[in-house]
Write a structure and sequence with these properties.
- Helices cover 37% and strands 25% of the residues.
- By secondary structure, the protein is an alpha+beta fold.
- A hairpin with a 4-residue loop joins strand 3 and strand 4.
- The mean pLDDT is 94.
Length: 81
């Protein structure tokens, strides 16, 4: 199996980077991970929550795509499994 070129970034670090980026846009939005099977079915693996209004802003967030869209994951970095 070939090893991809670049720097591996853990999921936890990508979530932190996205949350820092979200905090600049709206300080009350937070990326969360579904903890139960029911929540995962309803919202997907990762979702964005508005903490003030207490509702889900975005469902089924693809970590790598969202990180690249926000510019927090460089071209030479990739999401580690």
């Amino acid at each position: 199996m070939r090893k991809p070129k670049g720097v591996a970034v853990t999921r936890r670090e990508v979530v932190r980077r996205i949350n820092r980026s979200l905090k600049q846009d709206d300080p009350f939005h937070l990326l969360r991970r579904a903890r139960s099977a029911r929540a995962q079915l309803d919202r997907g693996d990762y979702y964005v929550v508005d903490l003030i209004r207490d509702f889900v802003v975005d469902r089924d967030v693809a970590l790598e795509a969202e990180a690249r869209k926000r510019g927090v994951l460089a071209d030479f970095e990739y999401l580690a499994n």
